[in-house]
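Objective 1b of the project was to move from sequence-level analysis to a structural picture of ligand recognition. The entry below was assembled by the postdoctoral researcher (A.K.) and checked by the PI before modelling. It contains the amino acid sequence of the target and the SMILES of the bound compound, 2-acetamido-2-deoxy-beta-D-glucopyranose.
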Amino acid sequence: MRYLLFASICALAFSGPILFQDSDLVAPQEMIDEINRVQDSWTASSDWVGNMTVAEAKQRVAPTIGSQKFSNNDWGELLNYLSFPATFDSRQQWPNCIHPIQNDSDCHAGWAFAAADSLSDRFCIASNGTVNNELSAAFIVLCSLASPSCIEGTTDSAWNFLKQFGIPKASCTPLSLIGSSQCPSLCHPLAPFTLFKVKKIYTFQGQPEIQAGILTGGPVEVNMEVYQDFLTYKGGVYKHTTGKLIGYTSVKVIGWGNQNGTNYWIAANAWGTSWGLQGYFWIAFGQCKFDVEAIAGNPDYKAQ
Ligand SMILES: *[C@@H]1O[C@H](CO)[C@@H](O)[C@H](O)[C@H]1NC(C)=O
Ligand SMILES: *[C@@H]1O[C@H](CO)[C@@H](O)[C@H](O)[C@H]1NC(C)=O
Ligand SMILES: *[C@@H]1O[C@H](CO)[C@@H](O)[C@H](O)[C@H]1NC(C)=O
Ligand SMILES: *[C@@H]1O[C@H](CO)[C@@H](O)[C@H](O)[C@H]1NC(C)=O
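Corresponding predicted holo structure:
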């Protein structure tokens, strides 16, 4: 009880309104030191976040969480028969199919990056490695909305687009086109314009379904809350420790593990390889609305 009281006083010290002006640093050194002092589940660092302000941090995330409107995957009795391993990592299960960490650089469209990235992996897994391409998140940004936008899409709009239209390889529609181009109908540079589509969209509600979804088809996309301290994550099992909510993002979940009795998800962010564990992170089950719902689709690979 005394510890709890102490912890909440610490949290108050860093979440008061005075610290949350747009011009303030989103993760001042005192916050980083405090995180590393009050808990030992995860490590905070200034390496990636540097002197980022609250205003800059808010531009890296979405202001609202994507709606959750697809019908539930009908697992029936499958869940009773699937026994989940204590740990699972798609990178070990499908070594050649998990594509590199994305860097959303100036287009913070986690909703599109995690969708394209999950679908790239799922094509490879479903085709046993015969359809192995990095697919274009930029094409989702340029073509799925009424006009190109990094910030206006959602997980739902991304997967709907993958089902209705599909996306080409990343090399066909590079990220550099964002900001200078409308929706392209040819590859840049010229190459066959093949679209990779989704056959059926599934949602997975809650932790066991999300695990079943990854085991049976590969990585899935989730929405999550982003607090100030998440930007400082450098390793270990993340649990929200201090700081305010700055928005939401979407990430690719590739598995789960256990550290000293704490179950955690293994996920890929799209903030480049200098953030977190070479771009990946571990987050405890139940944190930041992470395991409320996941979304993914079955690749339509026979159509290629
Ligand atoms: C942050 O700002 C301080 C003070 O202006 C400066 O000394 C430091 O080099 C900056 N750090 C980074 C990572 O830019
Ligand atoms: C999948 O690919 C591997 C390696 O190329 C091969 O050994 C295996 O037989 C394939 N499995 C199926 C079901 O095609
Ligand atoms: C796990 O528990 C052991 C024994 O209590 C401890 O020495 C170690 O530091 C813990 N590891 C982490 C990552 O918390
Ligand atoms: C990510 O992209 C940004 C902006 O282009 C760049 O500054 C940064 O170095 C990149 N990070 C990695 C790890 O590639």
